[in-house]
Design goal:
465 residues, alpha/beta, D-Maltodextrin-Binding Protein, domain 2, six-stranded mixed β-sheet, four-stranded mixed β-sheet, 17 helices, 16 strands, 33% helix, globular, disordered N terminus
Length: 465
């Protein structure tokens, strides 16, 4: 199978590529200003610069300061990975000291720190509305400028200014153990829900492995299923962020194994048919890594960020594979890609510290190799990458239409379904109902549809589809 990666064709960014070809400063209304200097590579420490104006190894060589980087990667903090990156960074910038802190409950803790303004210089952007980005962070440049250097430049943007740069990106597929599939006689990668369930049945009948490990107890792992909405399930890059909120029956059965109905029904059917762990309430996130490495688990539905963790968890890294999600639309399989947590710089830090922080982030994105070491889908358009994903077209869900950027957030909150927004409980409920036989899958989809329609009515959202 041939790889069809669309790594540089980032939807939503290419339309702005006709803007100023030179990397310049950008100012948008009341938003923060991206300061620029006379000539690239300047040693000036007068303030933050646009990303493109920073020349690593030249810009900011006279800076002597300490900055702080807070993040969620407690595993890489503990194993010394981040310390090694900083050691390499200091070979180029010995006078920019970087303090780091890995935070376990990052999603909540980072929001609390954000309001204090003095949390440090670099953080991964927590879950805030895009409308508030300029309240906290320094912009990197315009989206069109940043699109020359990174993928997903518009992902954390406001008023055409980019505020976030991913430390890595994820593509959406399914982790599987290649040896277990071979032992089960599964010789081709499943491309449809029916083929996937047939593969799971073969695993159960011919091996001792758990066909599909749900990771129910961890909670947050359940929300991973939402990542396959949009292009993966429909083949339509406009569906997720433009059409979903305006659709009357987004959870109806299309009758052809596509769409949200087919996506979530795969999980329901796997549970109902006994193709998961014996007791889903006792799953364990940390131990599952070693178990899939050793062949005790056949599949797990998680983003590509998890590949490296599973490979490192035992003696059989080559047995870990990653396949496209088993939905085929008009003969083609799709995978969406998007950034993981994204670097941002504190707008309330001193000008010198802001520039030091920007230099550090650019070095991490382009020189550290962190994204590739984690098995990530590429963020930088210049850094090397070894990511490969065969037999699937990698696309990006197009951004919301102007003026509708927060409609999905509002619908999530009003409906309490929280798609791609920690909506773990609704996925856990699918498992519970399937296991106990308390609700049919169609009844669950009817409940979701009513909540969705009620939210549309409450928010006055026009139904167009």
């Amino acid at each position: 199978m041939s790889a069809m990666l669309a790594a540089t064709a980032v939807a939503g960014c290419s339309s702005s590529s006709s803007k100023n070809e030179e990397s310049t400063a950008a100012t948008k209304g009341a938003d923060a200003t991206v300061a620029s200097t006379e000539g690239k590579g300047s040693d000036s420490t007068n303030g933050p610069m646009s990303y493109g104006d920073i020349v690593l190894g030249e810009t900011g060589k006279d800076i002597k300061t300490t900055i702080k980087f807070i993040h969620h990667k407690t595993d890489r903090e503990a194993d010394g990975t981040i310390a090694k990156f900083i050691e390499e960074f200091n070979k180029v910038y010995p006078d920019i000291k970087v303090e780091t802190e890995g935070i376990t409950d990052y999603a909540e803790d980072s929001l609390l720190r954000l309001n204090g303004k003095d949390w440090g210089e670099v953080m991964f952007i927590p879950s805030i509305d895009k409308a508030n980005l300029s309240d906290y962070f320094e912009p990197w440049g315009t989206v069109s400028e940043m699109d020359k250097y990174i993928n997903f430049a518009d992902n954390q943007s406001k008023n055409d200014l980019c505020y976030g740069i991913g430390y890595m990106a994820n593509a959406q597929g399914v982790l599987y153990n290649k040896k277990v599939f071979a032992d089960a006689g599964v010789t081709s990668i499943p491309k449809t829900p029916d083929e996937f369930l047939a593969a799971l049945k073969a695993v159960k009948e011919k091996t001792s492995a758990i066909p599909l490990y749900t990771n129910f107890a961890a909670g947050w792992t359940m929300g991973a299923w939402d990542a396959y909405l949009g292009s993966v399930a429909s083949g339509d890059t406009k569906w997720m962020n433009q059409k979903f909120v305006h659709t009357k029956e987004p959870f109806k059965d299309n009758g052809d194994g596509t769409g949200p109905y087919a996506l979530y029904k795969m999980l329901y059917d796997a549970v109902q048919q006994g193709l998961i762990e014996d007791d889903y309430t006792t799953t364990d996130w940390e131990s599952c890594k070693g178990r899939i490495n050793k062949g005790e688990i056949a599949t797990m539905v998680l983003g590509s960020w998890a590949i490296i963790q599973m490979k490192e968890a035992g003696p059989n890294p080559d047995d870990i594979g990653y396949m496209p999600f088993p939905i085929t639309v008009n003969g083609k399989q799709y995978a969406t890609a998007g950034p993981d947590y994204q670097y941002a710089v504190n707008k309330f830090s001193s000008d010198e510290k802001k520039l030091a922080a920007q230099i550090f982030v650019k070095w991490m994105v382009e020189e550290s190799g962190w994204c590739d070491a984690e098995g990530g889908y590429p963020v930088s358009k210049t850094a090397k990458t070894s990511f490969a994903f065969d037999g699937v077209e990698v696309v990006v869900d197009e951004p919301a239409l102007a003026g509708e950027e927060d409609l999905l957030n509002q619908m999530n909150a009003e409906s309490d379904l929280n798609f791609n927004a920690s909506g773990n409980i609704k996925i856990q409920d699918i498992i519970t109902n399937a296991f106990n036989g308390t609700k049919t899958f169609d009844d669950i989809m009817k409940d979701w549809t009513k909540k969705w329609n009620d939210a549309q009515d409450e928010l006055g959202i026009e139904v167009l589809y």
